[in-house]
Amino acid sequence: MNRRDFLKSALTFAALAPLAKLQAKSGADGDKSSDIVSGPGITRRHYKNTSMTLPLLGFGCMRLPRLSPDKPEIDFTTAAKMVDMAMKAGCNYFDTAYMYHSGLSERFLGEALKKYSRDSYYLTDKMPVWFAKSASDLEKIFNEQLKRCQTDYFDFYMLHSLDENHWSKAQKFHAYEFLEKMKSRGKIRKLGFSFHDKPEVLQKIISGGSWDFAQIQLNYLDWDLYRSREQYEILTRAGIPVIVMEPLRGGALATLSPEAEAILKKTDPQASCAAWALRYVGSLPNVLCILSGMTLPEHVEDNLRTFTPFKPLTDNERKVLNEALAAYRKCLAIPCTACRYCMPCPVGVEIPKIFGIYNQYKVSDNRWMFNKNYYAIDEDSRASACVDCGACLKKCPQKLDIPNLMKQIAGEFK
Ligand code: SF4
Ligand code: SF4
Which listed residue, of 76, 203, 318, 414, carries a Cα 20 to 30 Å from 312's Cα? Predict the structure, then answer.
């Protein structure tokens, strides 16, 4: 199916109507962002209208195999083998960051990629503004990253994990101006940012610079739950290509509930749950590259299968995925639909977000993931901040006893 047919067929998909609208809109814009490139190898997409193409699957280097599960040291032999598998298949986009594996991820890539010519792969790194105590620290960090990665330049470089606070620190230290300077000196080819906040903040950041790309959290559960759809729409309207992180929601969408998984298996017994989730994200035309943090050679193999070549979801597959999503949501502990009618809470409690994270925990039993997501929420917006005012009670169409649920969650994770 070519892109035009795909966009047309997407319009008939009622269950994810907002997604269909976006696809139609992007087509009407005249193929400005990313076109699917067909060929024998991994599917690639053009960066805007240029000859630069990126593999639709990118190699995230945050969860590389470790020598020991609770230590950051990387199992170099296995990880290097995975890099070689990816390179051989044309998956030549590698994403790292200053603190991944306590700094060892950058060093690992420097070593693992040095046997390849520098123009045969894309290397992406990020500026953690929260590590900087002054504006001059930015240059120190940047130079250290170049050194660790054994390179003279980064193909893609981001202001890391921007939210309202990090953006204001970036502004205070003129981080954008510094990175623009690095770009003009050829040390950065494309400048962007990764993002973790509300769409309103995203809009503000977009106006604060001339961005080549942005990286957001996007998957079929977060599409509504964490307002990924709105983020994607804002970026698409602004003509900014999207790189996706967390397409499997930290691995949660790779292991669904048994009911949900059975629905997917009935339609395609061979396809993994991860493949369905990746195909959902890749079906969005303004997605330039999807990062998958691969930990085992089997993950690389499975992902490469999904993207060689990439097949957008058909109308029927979208319906099936929607059924699986409904089944998955049913077994969630709190039947919150993320409609957000209860928002805003007068004291700032992130009601649907908390319920979403809690549900995920109940399905996956992954306490590490719960901690990571829950404690990323400001203390003032966690369940314990609820003052039992009852303002949300009348607004919830699901008749959820929100204040009591907040008490329960706050008690469980005291
Ligand atoms: S009851 Fe709690 S969650 Fe609901 S609006 Fe009041 S403070 Fe917010
Ligand atoms: S109104 Fe109810 S169902 Fe909707 S997001 Fe709030 S808690 Fe969830």
Answer: 203
